[in-house]
Design brief:
This protein is an alpha+beta fold and 68 residues long. The chain has one helix at residues 3-14, and strands at residues 19-27, 31-38, 43-51, 54-63. It has a four-stranded antiparallel sheet with strand order 1-2-3-4, covered by helices on one side. It is globular. The chain starts with a helix and ends in a 5-residue tail after the last strand.
Length: 68
């Protein structure tokens, strides 16, 4: 299992108590994009890019219900 797959698993386990669903949008050797659908109806959009073990780019958006 590569670093990105481990990171997705880490996010899923760490926030399982807050989330209804985890949707993986993109998964490559260096990049992950996913959406966590939270229990309160909000969504957390996560995008991370790794180079080796270093996080080189990231963005996190927390959106209210009804915003796509």
């Amino acid at each position: 299992m590569g670093f990105i797959e481990k990171r997705v698993r880490e996010i899923a386990q760490k926030y399982a108590y807050l989330a209804q669903n985890l949707l993986v949008l993109r998964l490559t050797e260096e990049t992950l994009k996913l959406i966590l659908v939270l229990n309160d109806g909000t969504t957390l959009r996560v995008a991370e890019r790794q180079q080796g073990k270093a996080l080189t780019r990231y963005s996190y958006y927390w959106l209210m219900p009804g915003i796509i």
